[in-house]
Amino acid sequence: MLELLSYTFMQRALIAGALIGALCAVIGVYVVLKGLSFIGAGIAHASFGGVALGFLLGVNPVLTAVVFCLLTAWGIGLVSRKGQIKEDTAVGIFFASTMALGILLIGLMRGYNVDLFGYLFGSILAVTPQDVWVTIGLGAAVLGVVGLLFKELLFITFDPEMAEVTGVPAGKLYFLLLSLIAVTVVVSIKVVGIILVSALIVTPAAAAYQLTEDFRRMMALSVVFGVGSTVGGLLLSYWLNTASGATIVLLATLAFFVAAMCSPRRRRRPALQRV
User: Fold this and answer.
1) Helices 170-192 & 150-158 angle (0-180, nearest 10)
2) Containing domain of residue 126, as a range?
3) Quick one: which of 15, 86, 211, 233 has the most CB atoms within 10 Å?
4) Is residue 269 part of a domain?
5) Integer Cα distance of 128 and 48 in angstroms
6) Helical residues (DSSP H) of the chain, grouped into ranges
7) Are 13 and 125 a contacting pair, CB within 8 Å?
C-alpha cells in the first residue's frame, strides 16, 4: 500500500477521486430527492458535445464542456417549463441532439483523438496537476453555493410550491440547481467518464436514502459512500488491472444493494403488510 501511494500519479488520482466522490454525493442527494436523475444523465451525455467542440477548436475541453452543459441544463429547464412538456421529454430531445452534435464534430476532425475517448470512459490515472486544481476550484465553488443556500435548496427540494408562496425564488433556485449539476458533471467526467458519471451522482445518494430519512444524515452517508466508492474503486482497479471508472461505479452499486438489504424500510414493510 505504501509503495502504491508513493507514485505521484496515484496521489493525484486519489485526491481527485475523493474530491469528486464527495462533490457528486452532495449534489446527488438533491438529484435523488427531487427526481432529477434523468436530467443528470442527459446533462452528462450533453458534455460529450462540449468536449468534442473543445478538441475541434483547440481549447481546453473542460471550459467548453462547462459552457455546453450549462446551456443544455438551462435549455432543459426552459423547454420543460415554458414549452409545457414533461422534463423527461425535454431531456430526451437534448440528450439525442447533443450526442449527435458531438459525433458530428468528431467527424470534422482529421482523425479520432484518444484523449476525447478518455472523457467517454474516464482516465483517473491520467489526471494532471492542472486537472486537480480545476477540480478543487470548481468543486469548492459548487459546495460553497450549496453551503450558502442550504436551507433554500432544501425547501425547494421537498415543497417548491410552498417555497414560492413564502417568498423563496423557487424557479431561480431550480435553474441554479441545474447549473450545479452541470458543473459537477463536467468536473467528474475525467474520473469516471461521460457514460458513467450520472451513476456516480445518483448511486451513493440512493444508497444513503436506504438507510435514513434524515436529510443531514443522508448527505453525510452519501459522502461516505461516494468517497469510499471512488477511493476503493481506484485501488481495486489498480490491483485487478480493470477500468477505473467502471470499477468505481460497480463498487458504488454494490454498496447500494448492501444498503438496500439493510434498509429499515425493508424491515418495516412486513409489519405494515400484516396490519
Assistant:
1) 100
2) 2-260
3) 233
4) no
5) 20
6) 2-5, 8-34, 37-57, 61-82, 87-108, 114-121, 129-148, 150-158, 160-165, 170-192, 197-211, 215-240, 244-261, 264-274
7) yes
On whether residue 267 sits in a domain, the answer given is no
Total domains present in the chain: 1
DSSP letter at 124 equals G
Residue at 31 is within a domain: yes
Q: Is residue 275 in a domain?
A: no
Q: Give the side-chain half-sphere CA count within 13 A for 143.
A: 17
Tens of pLDDT, residue by residue, the chain (275 residues)? 566 667 787 888 888 889 999 999 999 999 999 888 888 788 888 888 888 888 888 888 888 888 888 888 888 888 877 766 777 787 888 878 888 888 888 777 766 555 666 777 777 777 888 888 888 888 899 999 999 999 889 888 888 888 888 888 888 898 899 899 989 988 888 778 887 888 889 999 999 999 988 899 999 999 999 999 999 998 898 888 888 888 999 999 999 999 988 877 665 554 434 33
- Residue 72's domain is classified under what CATH number? 1.10.3470.10
